[in-house]
Amino acid sequence: MLEDNRIVVYDTTLRDGSQGEGLSFSVEDKLNLAKKLDEMLGLAYIEAGWPGSNPKDEEFFARAAAGELQLKNAKLSAFGSTRRANVLPEEDTNLRLLIAAKTPVITIFGKTWDLHVIRALGTTLEENLNMISDSVAYLKKAGREVVYDAEHFFDGYKANPDYALETLRQAHAAGADWIVLCDTNGGLLTEEVPGIISRVKETIPNARLGIHVHNDGDLACANTLTAVRNGAEQVQGTINGYGERCGNVSLCSVLPNLELKMGYQCLPEGNLKNLTEISRYVAEVANLSHNNQLPFVGRSAFAHKGGVHVDAVMKDRRTYEHIVPESVGNSQRVLISELSGQSNVLHKAYQLGLQMHKGDAEVKEVIEQIKQLENRGFHFENAEASIELIMWRTQPGYIAPFELRDMLVLSERRASSNEGLLSEATVKLQVAGNMLHTVADGNGPVNALDAALRKALVVYYPQLDAVRLTDYKVRVVNEDGTASGIRVTITSSDGHEIWQTVGSSTNVIEASWFALADSLEYALVYHLFKQNQPEASALQTV
C-alpha cells in the first residue's frame, strides 16, 4: 500500500479529454503534451489513447515505442476494453494491440452495470465476469501493470450491488494492480460516495482503489475528494476538465485542493506552482480559449472588482483569497470598471509603480474617465492595457507617441476584379513634431487601417515591426439593428508580452481605431513605465 498522505495522479487528457466536443489532438500535439505533463507536473501515469482504434493513436504508440517519448516521471498507459464475448484473450485483436503498444501500463475497462452487460454487450452476466477475469490475467501474464477501470460502477452498484461488487472481485483476483471506480455518467451524489466505497473495501480489502469521475452533475471535484477521504489512492482526471459531455473531473481543481487544503502529496515538491502554466498550455494546444472562470488557474480566479473587496485585499489578501495565488502559478488581479472606487485605482497604480494617493486629482480623473467610457460602451476588464494607458496619460510629462489628425477608410467592389471587396485606408498622424500622411490597402478595412498606421509609425518606431495583432473580437453593445453600438477588443503580442485593448463606437471602424491605436501606443510606452522611467517623454524615435 502507498503512504497515507500520498495520492497517485493518473492523467487521461490525451485520451478521455480528447473526447470533448470541439477538441482534437494531432500526433505531434499528443507527444508534446505528454512531455509537458511529465516535465512540469511529474505525474505518475499518463494515459495516451486506444491502440488500434484510429490511425493517430497507432502512430503515437509506434513513435513512443521507437523512443520519441522519453518520460522521466510518468508511466505511459495504453487504454482498451476487456476481450469480446466468447473470444479467447489471445485471439482478441484489442488485447493483442494493447500488448503490441509496448507501454509499461495497460488500462482496460469492463462492464459493472448489468444493464450494460445485457443491453449493450448482448451477453450473459456470467460471460461478462469471465471477460473481465480472462483479460486481466492475460495482460498480467504479459508482464504489464494493469489498471482496471470499472465502467459505470456507481450506477451498476445502485442497480445490482452484488453483481457490481463481483465484477471488482474478479478483476482483483485475476491480478489487477488497481481497481478504479468510475462514475461514467457523472450523476453520482457526493453523499453516496462513502457508503459505496466502504462496501468495496469490505469486498476487496487488499485492493488499491482509484476514482474516475465525470462532471455531468457538477459534482466531479467534490466526489473525487470524498473518494480520496474514504480510501481512494489514485485519482484520474484531465487538465481543465476536458472530456465528453460536461467533461471529466479537472485535475486543476483536484490537485490544489488535495495538496493545499487536505494535506496530501500528489506531485513532486514544488511542481504545483506549474499548474496554471500547464492549464493554459493544454488549452492553447487544444486550440480552445482558456476559461477565465476556472478555479485556481483561471485568469479571473483571483480577480477583484468590488471596491470594498479591493480595499480589504490591499490590507490583507486573505480577506478575499482562499489560497495564495502564486502557489498554483497564478496571480492576483484588480479589475477597474465603472463600479471601481479609489482602492481599485490605487492598487493598480501600486502594481504599475505609479505614485498615486487617495484623494489625488489623478485618481479622480482616472475614475471619471472610466465611468464616461464605459457609459459609451467600453469595457476594461479584459483590456488592462487600455486601463494602464489611461493611468499613464495622467502622469506629468506624458507625451503621446502619436496623434491622429485625419482618417479615411474605403471599401469598394469592382466588377473587373476577382478579388472581392478592395479596402484602402488613409491616415494623417502627428509624430515627433512631424505630420505624416500614409495610404495602405488590406484584407478588409480594419487590416487596411492597421497597415496604414504601421506604415507611418514604423519609420519612427522600428520596434513596432515585432508587434502582431493576434486576436480581434467584435461585440454588439446595445441592440439597435445596424445602428447598434460596437465594442472591439484586440489582443496583441510582441513575441514576449501579450496585451488587450478596447474601443467602442457606433462605427466599427472607429471602435477598431481606438483599440488599434491603444495597442500600438501601449507597445511603445510599456517598457518605459515598467522600468520606472521618470517621464514617458523620454520615448526614443529614429
Automatic annotation (TrEMBL):
Pyruvate carboxyltransferase domain location: 7-276
Listed EC numbers: 2.3.3.21
Pathway where it operates: Amino-acid biosynthesis; L-isoleucine biosynthesis; 2-oxobutanoate from pyruvate: step 1/3
GO BP, sorted A to Z: isoleucine biosynthetic process; L-leucine biosynthetic process
Catalysed transformations (reactions): pyruvate + acetyl-CoA + H2O = (3R)-citramalate + CoA + H(+)
Domain of life: Bacteria
InterPro entries recorded: 2-isopropylmalate_synth_dimer, AIPM/Hcit_synth_CS, Aldolase_TIM, Citramal_synthase, LeuA/HCS_post-cat, LeuA_allosteric_dom_sf, PYR_CT
Keywords: Amino-acid biosynthesis, Branched-chain amino acid biosynthesis, Isoleucine biosynthesis, Transferase
GO molecular function terms noted in the UniProt entry: (R)-citramalate synthase activity; 2-isopropylmalate synthase activity
CDD domains per record: DRE_TIM_LeuA3
Similarity comment: family membership: Belongs to the alpha-IPM synthase/homocitrate synthase family.
Name of the protein this chain belongs to: Citramalate synthase
Organism: Candidatus Chlorohelix allophototropha
